[in-house]
Amino acid sequence: MLGKNLHLSQFVHDPAINNLNVLGPLGDVHVDTLILSWICMGGILGAAALITPKLVVDGAGGKGQAVLEMIYSFTQEIAKGQIGHSYRKFYPLIAAIFIFVIVGNFIGVGPWRAFEQIPGWFHLSDGEPFELASPTTDFNVTAGLALISLLTYLGSGFWAHGAKFIKTVGLNPIEWLDLIVRPSTLALRLMVVITADELMRGAFLLILPILLPAGIMAFELFIGTIQAFVFALLTSIYIGLTVAEHH
Prior knowledge:
Blueprint: H1 15-18, H2 31-51, H3 63-83, H4 87-107, H5 139-161, H6 163-171, H7 173-207, H8 212-244
Helix pairs in contact: 2-4, 3-4, 3-8, 4-8, 5-6, 5-7, 5-8, 6-7, 7-8
């Protein structure tokens, strides 16, 4: 079920491994989140590998090229509009964040409950059947993305202003608060919204399992796109602010 992850301890029963503390019990590693995140990344890289050889300079190109050009134009406007002339250095990260988040959000939108009826489907330790969910419903994923944004934010400030930026941040308590609030809001917003969407779909599946969930799933795709946009936009804004400020 959503919110009940597959822990490593459910697959590895060696006490010597499960009791090994490396930033917490190794048994608390969420196997489902890792696998779904790998599927997202593999799907993105696989799609790029299939489309890239077919790209053309002249002409409209195929449907794959049209999708890539749309994503490129959209993410370029986000980065360029918020960061300015230095956006090219940070554009790959902004585009990667947008693409991964939107794919991660979308992967949880599907009739996955039907898989619970398959004989031999995995059940959790409490007897509940495991339900596939977006990896972005796991705080470990959203916090990791937020940490990448934070490190880029700090790195961009040092790149733009050198040691003066470090001095400004170190002597300003408000900047310390920003280092906590900004990544926290990025991580929590994405996780809470996508989790709420999946819970809403689950509720409507129980109420009216035929037609209504299709509309809810379409709404989820819309919200998933918006959240990917917001995450990429806020990361761009943070980078733009630190590149421009602290003179």
